[in-house]
Amino acid sequence: MKRPIIPPLGFAHPQGIPDPDLNALQQAHVRSPRLVTVDVPILGGDDVSRRFYQFVKDFPMTPSKIPFELTLNKFEFSITSDSLQHIARNQLIGTDPLPVREVRSKSLQFRLKCVSAAPNTEAFPISSWVVSDTVWPEMIFMTINSNDYSQNVLEVRRKLHHGKDLPIDLTNYIRAGKNEIIVSIPRMTTEIKKREYFIAVEEIEILQHNEIIDMCKEQSIPAAKVVEEIQKKLSGPTEDDDLIIVASDLSIDLTDPFTARIFEIPVRGKNCLHRECFDLETFLLTRGSKLKRTGQPSRQPSMVDVWKCPLCSLDARPYNLQCDQFLVSVREELQKQDNLDVKAILVTADGTWRPKPESQSSHKRKSTTGEDDGDSVDGGRPSKKSTNGCKATMVEIIDLDDD
Q1: pTM reported for the whole predicted model
Q2: Could you give the 3-state DSSP secondary structure of residue 50?
Q3: Which of 56, 95, 272, 356 could be stapled to 268 by a disulfide with Cβ–Cβ 3.0 to 4.6 Å?
Q4: What is the pLDDT of residues 154-171, one digit of tens each?
Q5: What's the CA gap between 30 and 84, in Å, rounded?
Q6: Cα dist. 212→58, 203, 262, 323 in Å?
Q7: Domains of the chain
Q8: How many whole angstroms separate alpha carbon 287 and alpha carbon 343?
């Protein structure tokens, strides 16, 4: 194949796809260990019940700002003896250079993460931290529990080689009591100083499928509280409102965003502002994990950073999920009526509800295709037309400035 040494005018070179197996061999020694689940209790007869999930549980060191004024910065955090007993450790098997880390239910791992923020940001809330991508400064050097700054050096895996900046695994360096991280940043350029950088030590816990299901069921929102919040939403105006829209009812979608069917266990995050829920088990089963290797007895646990709400992208970690008991009662009542095809309900100010009628276009689609278009097999989010296409609710608009 003949190709000129100098590219022709206007030639656009295709963007390279990061492949750490080829382009990051110099960091082969800091690869993530292969996770192997052990002591798996038989909680069910299927593979689903034996699946494990990783997520950020706690912060031994909460997000802390890295000051640019100092060349050396010291950050300290403490680990209890009880936590140390649950830490998963690495081991080498045979001649394989990739370490194996045995994990079980309630195993703990620790990692160091850095996130950038807008200038003059002084604090980084946890709810925003857990859904933010890792971003390291252009130049940074770190050690942990090192006496002479030459031991336990922490290497950064960057976007150039790995597709995105990655957190640093600290699990093998952790010790009981006080731990110390030294961060050195050379004098920054003006361009880099336009961003603030925060670092935090995250505690990663591993739980089994059924353990998360049971835990989220206990973390419930009482039906009475949900109804009370809806009543406040539909209650009369305050004296400070200039323009008020008074609605007689509130619409709540019942369809899961992955299956376009009604949920089995309705959950939403504590920070979610919407009242719609998604199905807990479907949400768990769609959390991505590394591919199962040949000869590996079970699938690896899920990735750590896969816990965003599918409706609003806010924090949806297992400890942050709540089961909506009002929607649980709605589903039970619809099941008694053999009416689980309902896509949405209308809730009135007194707490009563009724199925939301579907639009004429939805009925036409059903009659022509012979099936509900919400049962698509691609697992995508339900069409807005299928859930919100009903006749608009009559509202009364009151303009207090009107003469």
Answers
A1: 0.80
A2: helix
A3: 272
A4: 999 988 888 899 999 999
A5: 22
A6: 16, 17, 21, 12
A7: 25-207 (2.60.120.780), 219-237+246-291+298-355 (3.30.40.10)
A8: 25
